[in-house]
Amino acid sequence: MSASMSRSNTEGLRDHFLIAMPSLQDGYFAHTVTYLCEHNDEGAMGLVINQPIDLSLHQLLRQVDLEPVAGAPEQPVFRGGPVHPEHGFVLHSSEQSWTGSRTLGSGLTLTTSRDVLEAMALGKGPAQALVALGYAGWGPGQLEGELAENAWLVAPVSPAIVFSLAPGDRWAAAARSIGIDMNLISQVTGHA
Predict the structure, then answer these.
(1) What is the CATH number of the domain that holds 97?
(2) What torsion do the CA atoms of 117, 162, 22, 137 make, to the nearest 10 degrees?
């Protein structure tokens, strides 16, 4: 398959999940679900949504000199990917927007500006949110190559999987959303 043909078959994966195949034993991406925020000829960018780190939202807010008010929602912070882990991203429901907000699709918005954290510290943030540090990035054609190597499954995004399931349940649930039982998939990569 030519690179251009491969690319044309995979355009438009924005607003989809990338689900790591069991054979993907990469130490970082094994058993991950990544929400693709962008995918075009220049590459792809996404946030891993099922790897909480040992840091809570309140701890993160205090690290950036914001004191959460009593009753401000608490939640884990996620490792969004290996690129720029010092940068924060808030993937949230789209009922509100802030300075650095970008509406993505499926009722989801990505915000990278501090004002969303200020709102969250005051208990006035988005109804549903996932806070991540860092992101996953692919250069031109890189993701298409990994898809051709059967490293990933692709599924339409489901906000319920992002916000309502425990992080440990998201990988299998994302696969089930396209009729795949990960327990029945071999850990050995192969081609038909």
Answers:
(1) 3.40.1740.10
(2) -40
